[in-house]
Amino acid sequence: MRKSLSTKIPRGIDPEFESVFVTYGHRVAEQTFGKRYTTRAIAALGKLALVRKRRAFVRGDGGIVSNIGRHAV
Questions:
Q1: CA gap 54, 60 in Å, rounded
Q2: Strand, coil or helix: what is 68?
Q3: From the CB of residue 60, how many other CB atoms can be counted at a distance below 10 Å?
Q4: How many degrees, rounded to 5, is the angle at CA 63 between CA 15 and CA 40?
């Protein structure tokens, strides 16, 4: 018997996901987007790249994707 093909349309990654992950971290991204979506988005965007951007942001080297949650001084 042949296996039927999936008709499910894959959902894209939210453009805000990367900035939320880089700015606030894994836990807040999970709370905002959900655990399953976060796992899928990290795999799609590349875990190593996201971790490096997050590390650079935390250290103050830049790496911020947008100004979400940041206040102008």
A1: 10
A2: coil
A3: 7
A4: 40
CA-based nearest residue to 65, from 12, 34, 27, 29:
29
Q: Assess contact for 43 and 2: CB atoms under 8 A.
A: no
Torsions phi, psi of 32, nearest 5? -80, -45
**Rounded to whole angstroms, how far apart are CA atoms 62 and 18?**
14
In our burial notation (b when 16+ CB lie closer than 10 A, e otherwise), range 21-48 reads: bbbbeeeebeeebeeebbebbbeeeeee
Q: What is the pLDDT of residues 34-46, one digit of tens each?
A: 999 999 999 999 9
What pLDDT, on the 0 to 100 scale, is given for residue 73?
Answer: 39
Determine contact, residues 22/68, Cβ cutoff 8 Å. no
